[in-house]
Design a protein that fits this description.
With about 280 residues, the chain is mainly beta. It contains no helices and 24 strands.
């Protein structure tokens, strides 16, 4: 059973319209990419609305379907402004600091950037979905490297969706269309794939968000199976929870996920709500 459920469909404070990404601050605030409301919302650990920022548009600090949000060690919020094909960086209060990227296929360009994560050096990893690749940037948005389409292995890597880093900066990525999880070394080498399409333990149907707990276990939002699956850091299935529905503890196409500082799992649900387990 979830320890907390909050949110409903709408555009008022604390309401959501097709949210996807979520992250937590060090003090446990919950930051949600409220995608179709074109804003970021920030909540207290108990689910109380605190503040919001962003409106629809193309200017600095404006959004067009922001899909996800991550926080770095400097307490900056990094937002994938998906349909504007760019990444924007804000301070914790939502003041615009910086942006990078534009639509295209060159290094540093994006084609519907979806999820974002920061490693121990505050480098920024973005799932560049329709370019079939991941891109890694410096904390100020300079391009470093990529994994995917350039290396003739794009057939192995169709639609990168959720991204996260483990404590030792291993890269974890869900492939939404190929129904599996990519695990890769911090150097973007030694890639291995986990899972295949299906509904058995360890199988996925449209995996979405991914996160890692403090033990290193890998937690995946297995969206069309309406469940969360947990694996060891070696990829062995441990357990699952959730089934289709809209009651507390039931899930409808879970989207982004993250960990709270005290080790709970935050799940964004397609019922325009947040559940914490």
């Amino acid at each position: 059973e979830p320890s907390l459920v909050f949110g409903t469909e709408g555009a008022a404070d604390g309401e959501f319209c097709r949210p996807w990404g979520v992250c937590c601050t060090k003090d446990g605030r919950i930051v949600v990419a409220d995608r179709s409301n074109n804003r970021i919302q920030v909540f207290l650990p108990n689910g109380t609305f605190l503040y919001k920022f962003g409106v629809e548009g193309r200017g600095n600090g404006q959004f067009n379907k922001p899909a996800s949000v991550a926080i770095d060690s400097r307490n900056r919020l990094i937002v994938t402004d998906k349909d504007n094909h760019r990444v924007q960086i804000f301070d914790i209060e939502g003041n615009f600091l910086h942006k990078f990227g534009e639509k295209g296929g060159e290094h540093g360009n994006f084609n519907y950037p979806w999820d974002v994560a920061c490693n121990s050096r505050d480098q920024i990893l973005v799932s560049d979905t329709r370019n079939h690749r991941l891109q890694l940037f410096t904390p100020t948005g300079e391009y470093i490297t990529m994994y995917g389409f350039d290396q003739n292995n794009w057939k192995n890597f169709d639609s990168p969706r959720g991204v996260c880093f483990s404590a030792d900066d291993q890269v974890l990525v869900t492939d939404f269309n190929l129904h599996r999880l990519l695990v890769m070394g911090a150097n973007f080498e030694n890639a291995q794939f986990l899972g295949k399409q299906g509904s058995e333990n360890g199988e996925f149907t449209r995996p979405n968000g991914v996160t890692v707990d403090e033990e290193g276990n890998i937690i995946v939002a297995d969206s069309r199976n309406n469940r969360i699956q947990i694996f060891s850091n070696g990829g062995t299935f441990i357990k699952k929870f959730g089934e289709k529905g809209n009651r507390p503890g039931e899930l409808e196409t879970p989207q982004g996920i993250c960990m709270t500082p005290d080790g709970k799992i935050v799940v964004v649900d397609s019922h325009n709500r947040i559940q914490i387990f």
